[in-house]
TrEMBL record:
It comes from the Eukaryota. This is Gamma-glutamylcyclotransferase AIG2-like domain-containing protein. It comes from Aspergillus caelatus. Residues 37-168 form the Gamma-glutamylcyclotransferase AIG2-like domain. Pfam families: GGACT (PF06094).
Length: 198
């Protein structure tokens, strides 16, 4: 995944976000706040905040970091559907997404409501890069594995369309009316507190 000029500013911020080991330890030390690895529309901070009912003014990008999970591949149910992941057991197969930290029980349950149904919550090890805080003038990173929850497809792979990349190409989704409605809803919520679709 890479930043693109036409991507939403908050998504590019999330892609560029880095944690120090101290920041990660602080997030992981919060009780009942286990991380979630997301790889579809929930990678977009505006969409994530909408579905977990987070205040639109909250900068959730500070709790998000680029990550990848091995042993899975991306598929789509149709050419214009969000992705699902299927376990392959091949360590060379990877899925790129975002690790979200600091979600409380209610927020994780809302993600469950959104992602559940044809998918199961599974335990995964998400790989992230940590910034070395002892060398503030240098961009030295180290890899770290973080235990997280992720929703994976549990049905047959028959009929699923493999995604030709390790990251879901979300450009088309950003042009959809559904995404526009969510953005407008978040803006309305910030202005008048309604946040309702019209």
């Amino acid at each position: 995944m890479e930043c693109k000029p036409w991507y939403p500013v908050d998504f590019n911020q999330a892609l560029l976000n880095t944690f120090t080991e101290e920041t990660l330890t602080e997030f992981l030390g919060r009780p009942n706040c286990s991380p979630r690895f997301v790889y579809g529309v929930l990678m977009l901070p505006t969409v994530l905040k909408y579905f977990i009912r987070e205040d639109p003014a909250t900068d959730i990008t500070k709790r998000m970091i680029r990550a990848c999970v091995s042993g899975y591949m991306l598929y789509q149910i149709s050419p214009k559907s969000p992705p699902v992941v299927v376990q392959t057991f091949n360590p060379h197969d990877t899925v790129q997404g975002m690790l979200v930290l600091g979600l409380d029980v209610d927020q994780r349950n809302l993600i469950y409501d959104f992602e559940g149904g044809l998918m199961n919550l599974v335990d995964v090890r998400a790989q992230i890069c940590l910034k070395d805080s002892s060398l503030p003038c240098h961009d030295i990173c180290s890899e770290q594995m973080v235990d997280a929850g992720m929703f994976a497809w549990h049905g047959s792979k028959e009929g699923l369309i493999p995604v030709e990349s390790t990251a879901w190409p979300l450009d088309w989704f950003l042009k959809e009316k559904f995404y526009e409605n969510i953005v407008n809803s978040q803006h309305r919520h910030m202005l008048d507190g309604s946040g309702l679709f019209l």
